[in-house]
Amino acid sequence: MKIQEVIDFLEGWAPLQFQEPYDNSGLLVGDSNLEITGVLVCLDSIEKIIDEAIQRNCNMVIAHHPILFGGLKSITGKTYIERTIIKAIKNDIVIYAIHTNLDNIKTGVNQEIANRIGLVNQNILLNKKNMLSKVTVYVPIKHADEVRTAMFDAGAGHISKYDQCSFNTEGIGTFRALVGTNPYIGEVGTQQKEPEVGIEVVVRNAGIRKLLNAVNLVHPYEEVAYDLVALDNESPEVGSGIIGELKTPEQVLSFLKKIKTVFNSGVIKYTAANKNKRVKKVAVCGGAGSFLLSAAIAQNADIFITADYKYHQFFDADSKIIIADIGHFESEQYTTELIVQKLKEKFSTFAVHFTEVSTNPVNYL
User: Fold this and answer.
1) Which CATH superfamily is domain 3-99+334-354 in?
2) Whole-prediction pTM value?
3) What is the CATH number of domain 132-231?
């Protein structure tokens, strides 16, 4: 089995198109056409991780954080990044990163955090726009069901908790086949009028090519007529953070102590709060999430759990919400378990391992 098959699965789950502009998710090092021997999953693909992959006979490392963000002008081994890359290449080890694209899907990093806390009624905290398009395919009426089914099977027609959604408009299509064509209906050089239906569906931008390929396989026409319109609608399944509710409200300090235990945080930094305040609505974001504070406040969250807050940023709580910084590594540590679980559910022909190396660069005294 090729490593590329694992990559295809990961990118079907968390498409690269969902990553942030600054990010560098995807295949970073190595040949994806290699036969896979094993996978090692980690948060950070540092040199010790490559050593562990060698020892455990894994030729693929899947990391949450990309080891490469900016361009390298030389690879001489003078930095930990360069040493990691050199060792991976020498030992035919592929490094793959699944970062903000995994942050930005509903079944990704933030849902895992929310599940660990025990949140119900979960929704994306800040939905992304410009993730969707409307595709309209024109087809003879007698072939409409087959084409429509192919569009649904390719992933189109999902709107929130509904699928197989389409709008269908009947009309008369006209065309004239020119010399060199092989028309399904009509004669070369003669205008043809044909009762057709326009099938409109919503599709993720990441799935447009798959949709059009599926339509081409079943559509009877030599040339398929379709419209493609970018939508400004928010995507219900793509975005940053998660907001949900505790089944039972909890006293704030008791809740923070529970969070400290669940995430094994060395310390939690949090804004001043009424000790008798009850926490019910909780917003979360793995890693650096300060950009989501206004969204958490707008949705009336009682507390916002995230990481990497700077001193002056804590003032932005402005007595409207409690900010709790639990640590970057701590907030994302269970991402490895999520990835391993997904891989084991899909594949059984190779070993998938959690790293035994802690890559957290921060210690607490």
Assistant:
1) NIF3 (NGG1p interacting factor 3)-like (3.40.1390.30)
2) 0.86
3) 3.30.70.120
Intra-chain end-to-end CA distance of the chain, in Å? 46
Is the dihedral angle over the CA atoms 173, 179, 184, 189 positive or is it negative? positive
In CATH terms, 109-127+239-326 corresponds, of 3.40.1390.30, 3.40.50.300, 3.30.200.20, 3.40.190.10, to 3.40.1390.30
Q: How far apart are CA 199 and CA 159, in angstroms?
A: 15
- What is the CA 342 to chain-centroid distance, rounded? 13
Measured between alpha carbons, how far is 306 from 282 in angstroms, rounded to an integer? 11
Q: What is the pLDDT of residues 273-329, one digit of tens each?
A: 777 789 999 999 999 999 999 999 999 999 999 999 999 999 999 999 999 999 999
Instruction: Kindly provide the residue ranges of all beta strands, DSSP E only, lying in the chain, ordered along the sequence.
Output: 26-29, 38-44, 60-65, 94-97, 119-127, 132-140, 167-176, 191-204, 225-231, 239-251, 269-270, 278-288, 303-307, 322-325, 351-354
Interval 61-109: pLDDT, tens = 999 999 998 888 899 999 999 999 999 999 999 999 999 999 999 999 9
Are 352 and 39 spatial neighbours (Cβ–Cβ below 8 Å)?
A: yes
Nearest residue to 46 via CA among 363, 284, 257, 357: 357
What is the average per-residue pLDDT within 139-150? 97
- Residue 176 confidence (pLDDT) above 80: yes
Task: Give the CA dihedral 32, 6, 356, 286, nearest 10 degrees.
Answer: 110
